[in-house]
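Exercise 3.2. Students should predict the tertiary structure of the chain below and write it as structure tokens, then compare their answer with the key that follows.

Predict this chain's 3D structure.
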Amino acid sequence: MRSLKEFAAVQWAAIADRQTRAWASKPIESQQRTLAQLMAKASATSFGQDHGFSEVRSHQDLVQAVPLRDYEALRPYIDRVVAGESDVLWPGRPTYFAKTSGTTSGAKYIPLTKESVPYHITSARNALFAHMRATGSSKMVNGSMIFLQGSPVLEDKNGIPTGRLSGITAHFVPAYLQKNRKPSWEANCIEDWEEKIEAVVRETLHAPMSLISGIPPWVQMYFERLLEVSGKSSVGEVFPDLELFVTGGVAFEPYRARFEELFGRKVPIVQTYPASEGFIAYQDQPDSLDLLLLLDNGIYYEFVPADRYFDENPPRLSLAEVQIGVNYALIMHTNAGLWGYSIGDTVEFVGTSPYRIRVTGRIKHFISAFGEHVIGSEVEHALDQAVAAQGGKVREFTVAPQVNPSEGGLPYHEWFIAFDQAPSDLQAFALSLDLALQKKNSYYHDLISSGILRPCVVRALGSDSFITYMRSVGKLGGQNKVPRLMNDRSIADKLIEL
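Answer key:
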């Protein structure tokens, strides 16, 4: 018999499902309505007046009015918001700043408004509700739940609470889930990631965990420490009531084999696509890699063909114009005041009824030192194929070009792979990897077959190498991620030095 909490969750899931079906069945209309709402709301802001929002009626009007910008290009406006000015990008002042790193000039401050914050919360909730509706399983709400996240302690930035997005959302856990929540507030506030993991392990070791969520590499670190402390052989043995694992932040496929081993039994997985700039998509079908694009979430999307992104005037497509199987840079206009904003991710549509996507990589995280333009999804696919053919267990990896090999000879792609268990024949593994990438990327194949590049070189690293690297650059844990590939050797050379 279902508990009262389960019964309530099932009812809410049914409501969320009806709402989702309503906008998903009319996707173009949903986006047109969102655009109109955004323009009307922000027309009197400084940005809106500078860009003629009051005259924008269509996608083409928007393209003419608002240029594409990344954070640095939008920064003159954001700096005014951070300094305390009102009505710059969105009416009033933000409710929060989500602080992230990674730009050439230090921290980024992504505004979160009273209109945008609820979508972050309801989207995460609806991802769980979609799983309930699809599987009929609602037991997860009875047990303890954990999200491995950044500290919820927020700093003050000119009167605006500021912190990691995951720390901000920790303040919005519904009251009915508070007593189920793990870890404690005190443990969650620990800044040092390794110290936090120890505290989380202590607090959850004997808890009836039913739902665990977080970014894969850091959850893996937690799981492995959990097994060391418990002496158990699998997470499923430690947590017999575990019903669901929710993940996001990076592609899960490279981690799947290791997580299945850690779980020790089948545990359902829901993949999500949240970002500080907005909650973009989530998996709404069991055992699927496809993510439902959220079209009624306060975000109007544009899509730029990735191979044209760096053109002087790249094509900017509306949802109605996209094609299945094409790699697009994702552009956002949001109810947090981000306009023509290039989030830096690339996506590929796998369906249009409803619109579902897969995240393929980062527009600036690629290798094209020789014109090959290899992207994240391609190297992840090649690695999966090599592991299937040659064995081995991969913890983490990154790829970089070696343009001028010190040993002489042709240049090549150098793979840095941290193995939990290395394949028995590393050369055969490298060959399988290279052939799989050639099949996936015709430009790379042509460079190999023409004798411009030699096949890839795999440098096997210790299992903790990337943890050591992330610690050395001050990015261990939380929402931080290792880029899968770079067009320079900034990460590669650092890994060699460690």
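Discussion points: The mean pLDDT is 91. Residues 345 and 362 are 4 Å apart (CA to CA).
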